[in-house]
Design brief:
The complex is a heterotrimer of chains A (313), B (339) and C (337). With 313 residues, chain A is an all-alpha fold. In chain A, 77% of the residues lie in helices and 0% in strands. In chain B, helix 4 runs parallel beside helix 7, helix 5 packs across helix 7 and helix 7 runs parallel beside helix 8. Chain C has 337 residues and is mostly helical. The chains are: A mainly alpha (313), B alpha/beta (339), C mainly alpha (337). Chains A and C meet through helix 1, helix 6, helix 7, helix 8 and helix 10 of A and helix 6, helix 7, helix 10, helix 11 and helix 12 of C.
């Protein structure tokens, strides 16, 4: 197992090199630094000296190959530098934002999985009946609503109509869950359709397997068949799916954090997007890739841990 | 003569499909005495597996259902039982083993866990269960039973898995063992071992066995009685020796003729022409008529009944006057032979 | 007069439609597809969603045929000429007679079925104009991404070794980048615009299709018919195009159809991030995001959001339902949830 992890991590390095290469090409070649400078300098028509100074300050003034080498070494060593827009140290910003992001993600993941699984089991138990058909159709309906619509209507309904307070913002401490409740609830509902349908499929696939017939032939009660045999097998793909959601959540909460003014790394990224802060976006792309790769490795490991048939080589 | 252990009367198991109602089991009647073996043979699709599944009411729902008939086990009709009561019969008084040992075992539980579950499901003790499981694994001739108890199904070979299935079925000392093509998925050499193991265990435990197979050769050793199924019906049933010595139904005769044997060396293999009719649309009259080398005038329109033709041997064929349904004039083949 | 017609915009949808009709007819002659079409025809939900999609397509076509009356005028589409309503001063509720939210409500020029937006545009008209954007996003992106993904996937799967390594590497790099961020990064450097959005969406949706075609090509490469073709001396290209490709197409088409809904939905998200289409180009995403401010007003202005999200929802639902039905019609075993 350990050898496998090390091998995967080593293989991640060329991938990350590719990612930073891609970001370099995008942000230095497709959009030239002069354009970036112009966007970030406050005055309308910056003088060439002002541009040069900004470029120097942010490390854009050196020739392309040198910039390339610098970029690659910095990024690979996680030295992200300063934000183009606010001059803050990017790493510092990330450290501050991680806490709120993780707490939001944990809430959404746990509550979401619980709800999705419960509904999926319920619908699967009634397979072939109207409950099943309507449940499925409801899932497709829920999947067809735009995420932004969920956010806007959710905030409106919970905030103005049900008068839930606070409807946005964030404060550390004991009250933190109050601020996270609404965004978490919306996060759960918005992905309900997709995952419920998925988990239902997993459960149904197991219910059609031969070993279920064998268990019934042994006289095992229907409850034990469902919760002992079927669920244990279905737990494998379900668990893998949950682990896969972790990196997705960290990144997907971009809009969620931004909407509800939660000062996490997602919100920070969105602010950078609004202010065309390329340095921060570059850093977040790289960080996001690292998280995604770790997520993939975690997924494979979780598979090996849960399924006795899988041996990682 | 003691009362039969299992008596199936006029069992009909149907399926609802988009193409119409498939009459997979269409009026099957047989009985098994305690301790004896009945083999049911037939080609794929003749309904033999569905017959077996119907006894334990494991017919795939919601499409399948038992339409009518009686299944008397020790005198009580199993079809009258509620689900909970049927549960106590399954795995305890009647046990079943299936064709595919790999998929029939739960891949994420150890063998021991699955064996013990059979006991626990019938109010057994888990602690003594492991002991008993180990004993049974040894009984089915598995080396190192303790290691196997803690293994997972994918770590065992096909033959070993089938032995495990047999052990699992025997955990509660059932009176009847239903074996649905137990050796079809196994290598030829392993097949023989498993079959002789089953015969041995049957003698030792005093069980009755319902053996389902498509292979006449396999059942020869074990079977006391043999029933041949075709198109959802039993077309011939007889004590084994009698059947092998002189099969009466043309289908059975064709089955025997198509077995390769030394006597036919150098000649072409005998085959049956035609295909099995559509189960959603059984033809009126004799269902084998279209392919029968001995068919004559009444066959396509008159549906023969299963009637005794020689002592305990019964056949469903109009070649034998007793098979004509009541009220239909008896005809005999010498006068009119349709070719 | 002929130079006063915007030929590109006018003819493009008809070219696409003609191509689709031709391909459908050719496909209908193969047993796989004729059987699938038959099953689809019997599925009422599938037919309804197909009708809905066609309705949206018809509106989009109307919005593509455009010309100008003289060299100095703007190009205006057929839809604009038919459906444009006189502008009001500002917001007004559906079917109201006066404006909303002003200290002194002004009377309206006429009744608007779904009200008007902040600058007085009729909401129904705005919604209709969003159809074209949505369908272009779905259609053009797929048109760009699919052939490329297919080509690279097949090359990787068929030739193996360095081609496979290269494509796999690109795939892994691209799929390691969170897709939202990849989209964002691309849009930040490409700028706003429908074409840019199509390219960006194409890059992000490329990977899964490429992986699919690579996997399927690998499977088919080992099949006997390919070995037989090689034994007969057929060239690689011929085998790829005439033999392997038709076997890939069902899965690819299903995948693309199911992906259309995601493409259309992505526009709203990017619009929130101010990276979508420019505001002059009508889009539902822009309308939905504008609603955020509208909902905070007193009295609440909900009709723009309702109309745009409703139109988006119906189209996405139709794509989802039809995509599922298509997959079940071709091969129910493909259902993976």
């Amino acid at each position: 197992m350990l050898r496998y992890i090390i091998r995967r991590l080593l293989y991640a390095i060329p991938i990350l090199i590719g990612v930073s290469l891609a970001t370099f090409v995008l942000f230095n070649v497709v959009a030239t630094p002069e354009q970036i400078a112009k966007k970030n300098l406050s005055s309308k028509n910056p003088t060439p000296e002002q541009i040069q100074e900004w470029l120097k300050d942010h490390g854009y003034d050196k020739p392309l190959p040198v910039r390339f080498k610098d970029h690659m070494t910095e990024v690979m060593l996680f030295k992200f530098g300063k934000s183009d827009a606010t001059d803050e140290d990017i790493w510092g910003m990330i450290k501050v934002g991680v806490g709120p992001s993780v707490s939001l993600m944990v809430m959404v993941l746990i509550a979401g999985t619980f709800v999705d699984l419960t509904v999926a089991l319920f619908v699967a138990y009634f397979r072939g009946t109207y409950i099943d058909a309507w449940g499925l159709f409801l899932c497709v309906l829920l999947m067809s609503i735009s995420y932004v619509v969920y956010l806007i209507t959710g905030q409106f309904m919970l905030g103005r109509i049900l008068k839930y307070y606070p409807s946005s913002g964030f404060r550390e401490g004991a009250d933190v869950w109050k601020f996270l409740l609404m965004p978490a609830a919306i996060g759960v509902v918005s992905s309900l359709g997709q995952y419920t349908r998925l988990y239902r499929t997993f459960v149904l696939e197991e219910m059609n397997q031969d070993y279920v017939r064998t268990a019934r032939a042994k006289g095992v009660s229907e409850d034990r068949v469902l919760f002992g045999h079927v669920l244990k097998n279905a737990a494998i793909p379900i668990l893998t799916s949950v682990v896969t959601q972790i990196p997705l959540l960290l990144m997907g909460s971009l809009l969620l954090e931004s909407f509800f003014n939660i000062p996490g790394i997602g919100g920070m990224t969105v602010d950078a997007i609004f202010s065309q802060d390329f340095a921060v976006v570059r850093a977040m792309v790289f960080l996001g890739s690292v998280l995604y790769i770790i997520g993939y490795i975690l997924t494979d490991i979780s598979y090996a841990l849960v399924d006795p048939r899988v041996r990682l080589g | 003569m003691a009362e039969p252990l299992l008596q199936v009367e006029n069992l009909r198991t149907y399926f609802n499909t988009p193409r119409g109602t498939v009459r997979a089991v269409d009026g099957v009647t047989f009985s098994i005495d305690p301790g004896e073996t009945l083999a049911i043979v037939g080609e794929s699709g003749c309904g033999k597996s569905m017959t077996a599944l119907s006894i334990l009411q494991l017919v795939p729902e919601p499409a399948g259902y038992i339409e009518s008939g009686r299944i008397l086990f020790r005198g009580k009709d199993l079809l009258d039982l509620r689900w909970d009561d049927m549960k106590t019969v399954r795995g305890r008084e009647i046990a079943m083993i299936f064709q595919e040992p790999m998929t029939s075992l739960n891949p994420v539980f150890t063998i021991g866990r699955q064996l013990v579950e059979t006991l626990v499901a019938h109010d057994g003790e888990a602690t003594t269960g492991w002991q008993r499981a180990e004993e049974l694994l040894a009984r089915v001739k598995i080396d190192d039973p303790r290691r196997v108890l803690h293994s997972y199904p994918h770590e065992l070979s096909g033959g070993m898995r089938q032995r495990v299935m047999i052990a699992m079925a025997l955990m509660n000392r059932p009176a009847l063992l239903i074996a649905d093509e137990p050796t079809t998925a196994l290598d030829v050499t392993v097949q023989a071992e498993i079959l002789s193991l089953m015969a041995e265990l049957q003698r030792e435990f005093g069980m009755a066995v319902l053996l389902i197979s498509h292979d006449l050769g396999i059942v020869a050793e074990m079977a006391d009685h043999v029933g041949v199924m075709y198109a959802g019906e039993i077309v011939e049933i007889a004590p084994a020796a009698q059947l092998y010595r002189s099969p009466k139904h043309p289908y059975t005769r064709c089955l025997f003729a198509s077995l390769p044997s030394r006597q036919q060396r150098g000649k072409d293999l005998v085959t049956l022409e035609g295909v099995v009719p559509d189960p959603a649309n059984w033809p009126p009259g004799c269902r084998f008529a279209a392919r029968c080398p001995d068919r004559f005038a009444p066959c396509p329109s008159t549906h023969p009944v299963l009637a005794p033709v020689d002592g305990a041997q019964c056949a469903r064929c109009l070649l034998y006057p007793a098979a004509f349904p009541p009220g239909v004039p008896v005809q005999s083949p010498e006068k009119e032979t349709v070719r | 007069m002929l130079t006063n017609v915007d030929w590109l915009s006018t003819l493009a949808p008809f070219v696409v439609l003609a191509a689709m009709v031709i391909m459908l007819r050719r496909a209908g002659r193969t047993p796989l597809w004729s059987e699938a079409f038959r099953r689809l025809r019997r599925n009422p939900l599938a037919m309804i969603s197909l009708a809905v999609i066609s309705l949206y397509a018809a509106v989009a076509v109307l919005d593509s045929i455009s010309w100008r009356t003289s060299k100095t005028d703007d190009f205006r589409t057929l839809l604009q000429r038919i459906a444009e309503r006189p502008k009001e001063r500002t917001y007004s509720a559906p079917y109201a007679t006066v404006t909303t939210g002003e200290p002194e409500p002004h009377p309206l020029n006429e009744k608007h079925l779904l009200g008007t937006d902040g600058v007085g545009n009729d909401v129904v008209y705005l919604t209709l104009r969003g159809c074209r954007t949505a369908l272009i996003l779905g259609g053009l992106t797929s048109l760009i991404a699919t052939p490329l993904a297919l080509m690279f996937g097949m090359l990787a799967g068929y030739f193996g070794k360095w081609a496979d390594d290269a494509v796999l590497y690109i795939n892994q790099v691209l799929s390691s980048i969170p897709s939202i961020l990849l989209l964002v990064a691309l849009m930040m450097v490409l700028g706003k615009g429908v074409l840019q959005l199509c390219i960006a969406l194409g890059v992000t949706s490329w990977v899964s299709l490429c992986r699919l075609s690579r996997g399927e090509t690998l499977k088919h490469r080992e099949r006997e018919y390919v070995r037989a073709a090689r034994a007969l001396g057929l060239s690689h290209t011929r085998i790829l195009i005439r033999h392997i490709l038709p076997n890939l197409l069902p899965l690819v088409i299903i995948s693309v159809t199911l992906g259309l809904s995601g493409l259309v939905l992505a526009e709203a998200i990017l619009s929130y991030l101010q990276l979508g289409v420019p505001p002059e180009v009508g889009s539902w995403g822009n309308m939905i995001n504008g609603a955020r401010v509208e909902l905070a007003r007193e009295p609440v202005i909900w009709w723009g959001l309702a109309s745009a999200s409703g139109a988006l929802f119906v189209l996405v639902l139709a794509f989802n339902v039809f995509g599922d039905a298509l997959r079940d019609a071709v091969d129910p075993r493909l259902r993976t949830g």
